[in-house]
Write a structure and sequence with these properties.
Helix content is 41%, strand content 14%. It is an alpha/beta fold and 353 residues long. The chain has two domains: 142 residues, no CATH class; 188 residues, CRAL-TRIO lipid binding domain (Phosphatidylinositol Transfer Protein Sec14p, 3-Layer(aba) Sandwich), CATH 3.40.525.10. The chain is globular and about 50 Å long. InterPro entries: CRAL-TRIO_dom (IPR001251), CRAL-TRIO_dom_sf (IPR036865), CRAL/TRIO_N_dom (IPR011074), CRAL/TRIO_N_dom_sf (IPR036273), PI_Transfer_CRAL-TRIO (IPR052578).
Length: 353
């Protein structure tokens, strides 16, 4: 299957046409099968397109990646993180969403690794996830990518944590693919170049190609700032002309208002939910196998429908209708005992209630 077209004259690859892209989105959606609730809301055509682009339009690889994200979202519940959960991580402004966008209308996340104030890598990742979810909920309708503006003031080799670096790369690349439009590293110290050689193996080529080094004393590199931002709005630490500085109290008020926006957005998933999100439960219990390179139809499991019935003892039973199934359920559907893993079931049901 062709992922792109070759231009024989120059040897360049030509992007897929809109019709070809939509065909792949449709193919990917078919592989995912029936979705409901928050997972259905998450899996918009735009989201599917991002996962396809992240895997160079390989549908099976994109399906495998997306399925892993869906399971992660069910277990981690990033949309349920609130300001009060991570406020202590934000005290120094080590990551915050700027009150301006770039010239292309993209959300700007300011990162200040030199302002690290905690030691728990789990807490740091949770705050990063919160910031990513917040940045996304505030993207303009015509944008799906953001800009990271990274200030290295106060950063030192002692700030390095390979564990946090690896987890950060994993979350950003695997759970938020194609969300980064540009990352500007502002005034990184000389020693960072050595650290960068450690970081790059964790990043995909298309990711680190979006990284730009900018130095305040290098007028040529500073042109990047002028090209991307309205410098009247940018903080003075980045060579801008704004005197605004980070205030935890003011930022906290903004985030609490944004939390209401987040709740409103995800609550719309209720109308898309049926049978207590049992499809999500089944995805957790028996995630489809989307191994790349396998073209076998039996590997492409597709849930056609889900029925809820009561067992002889009054406990709920799930029947999955699948073209490859036969036997114990009504209408030839396969019976799935939802007591196989009560912890996962309880988590999924509570999530939908």
């Amino acid at each position: 299957m062709m992922m792109s077209k070759k231009n024989g004259a120059k040897g360049h690859e030509t992007p897929l046409s809109p019709a070809e892209e939509q065909a792949k989105i449709t193919e990917l959606r078919a592989l995912l099968g029936s979705l409901s609730g928050k997972l259905l809301l998450f899996c918009s055509d735009a989201a599917l397109s991002r996962y396809l682009r992240a895997r160079n339009w390989n549908v099976k690889k994109a399906a495998k990646m997306l399925k892993e994200t869906l399971k992660w979202r069910l277990e981690y519940k990033p949309e349920e993180i609130r300001w009060e959960d991570i406020a202590h991580e934000a005290e120094t402004g080590k990551i915050y969403r700027a009150n301006y966008v770039d010239k292309y209308g993209r959300t700007v996340l300011v990162m200040r690794p030199g302002c690290q104030n905690t030691t728990s890598w789990k807490g740091q990742i949770k705050y990063l996830v919160y910031c990513m979810e917040n940045a996304i909920i505030n993207l303009q309708p015509d944008q799906e990518q953001m800009v990271w503006l990274i200030d290295f003031k106060g950063w030192s080799a002692g700030s390095i944590s390979v564990k946090v670096t690896r987890e950060t790369a994993n979350v950003l690349q695997n759970q938020y693919p194609e969300r980064l439009g540009l990352a500007i590293l502002y005034n990184p110290p000389k020693i960072f170049e050595s650290f960068w050689t450690v970081v790059k193996p964790f990043l995909e080529p298309k990711t680190y190609r979006k990284v730009k080094f900018v130095y305040s004393k290098d007028s040529e590199s500073m042109k990047i700032m002028d090209e991307v931002f309205d410098m009247d709005k940018v903080e003075s630490v980045f060579g801008g002309r704004s005197a605004v500085e980070f205030s935890k109290d003011e930022y906290g008020q903004r985030m609490q208002e944004d939390d209401k926006k987040t709740v409103s957005y995800w609550s719309s998933a209720v109308s898309l939910t049926s049978s207590n999100n049992l499809v999500e439960t089944l995805l957790l219990l028996d995630p489809p196998n989307f191994e790349s390179g396998s073209d076998s139809e039996k590997d492409d499991k597709n849930l056609e429908s889900v029925d809820l019935a009561s067992g002889s003892d009054g406990s709920p039973e799930v029947f999955v209708k699948d073209s490859a199934c036969s036997g114990s359920g009504p209408n030839g559907s396969a019976k799935v005992d939802i007591d196989l893993d009560p912890h996962k079931i309880e988590s999924a049901i509570n999530n939908s209630s």
